[in-house]
């Protein structure tokens, strides 16, 4: 919830030219991002050990890749903090990536079966596409940062299953 609130507050601060507060909250968001990543993986392992998520190896790999993608986009945003167009789109892409688990709770995953991963990816990418559409209408082109963010989101779904079945990883996930 804190991330969602800050994701709205931060652009508002920039719009009001309150860059000092934006910077201070930005460092808070960096700490929060790391805490969210650690907590997300801890909760994933707790859910697997409680038997609530199966297959464990795929669920674990999707969450590892999502956390890695989220943190990677946050690091990219930090690296481009002096280039507002890049920075804001990387931050938005990272936040969009966090919607994957929400889509998994909203959608009828039991009915979707294996196609559920594809549908979740499509929903996440639809949000990135909306940002691209907005850029195209407002600026006449799609900013390259959107393509990076969408690429990260696109790769999670297809990469997770093959990586999840690497024998050592699958054994580790089964032991959780």
Written description of the protein model:
With 176 residues, the chain is an all-alpha fold. The chain has nine helices and no strands. It has helices at 2-15, 19-49, 56-79, 84-97, 100-106, 109-112, 116-139, 144-164, 167-175. α1 packs antiparallel against α2 and α5 crosses α7 (116-139). It is globular. The two termini are 28 Å apart. The model has no long low-confidence stretch (mean pLDDT 93).
Write the layout of secondary structure elements.
Elements: H1 2-15, H2 19-49, H3 56-79, H4 84-97, H5 100-106, H6 109-112, H7 116-139, H8 144-164, H9 167-175
Helix pairs in contact: 1-2, 1-4, 2-3, 3-4, 3-8, 3-9, 4-7, 4-8, 5-7, 7-8
Q: Give the N-terminus to C-terminus distance in angstroms.
A: 28 Å
The radius of gyration computed from the alpha-carbon positions, rounded to a whole number of angstroms, is 17 Å
**What fraction of the residues are assigned to beta strands by DSSP?**
under 5%
Helix fraction, binned, reads over 70%
Low-confidence stretches: none
Nearest-integer average pLDDT: 93
Decide which structural class fits the backbone. mainly alpha
Q: Helices and strands, in N-to-C order?
A: HHHHHHHHH
**Number of E-state strands:** 0
Q: What shape does the CA trace take?
A: globular
Can you summarize the main beta sheet?
A: none
* Count, helices: 9
Summary keywords:
single chain; 176 residues; mainly alpha
Put the structure in a nutshell:
With 176 residues, the chain is an all-alpha fold. The chain has helices at residues 2-15, 19-49, 56-79, 84-97, 100-106, 109-112, 116-139, 144-164, 167-175. It is globular.
